[in-house]
Design goal:
Keywords: Membrane, Transmembrane, Transmembrane helix. By secondary structure, the protein is an all-alpha fold. The chain is 72% helix and 0% strand.
Length: 60
């Protein structure tokens, strides 16, 4: 019985340590702002134009 309690405490401690470590490391990370790629604006404009064309289609 005491062996199970000891194992539960050790495994629980390791899991608790992992959760705390991950939460602290996520907070301390500084995220670099994502810069748009070379062709992102072109793809966005093409998608908007296709959407406009689909909405304004008169062959209903």
């Amino acid at each position: 019985m005491t062996l199970w309690v000891f194992l539960a405490l050790v495994i629980g401690g390791i899991l608790l340590f992992g959760v705390l470590y991950e939460s602290i490391s996520r907070r301390s990370k500084r995220r670099v702002p994502v810069k748009p790629g070379k062709y992102d604006q072109t793809y966005t404009e093409q998608l908007l134009q296709d959407t406009r064309d689909t909405i304004n289609r008169t062959d209903v």
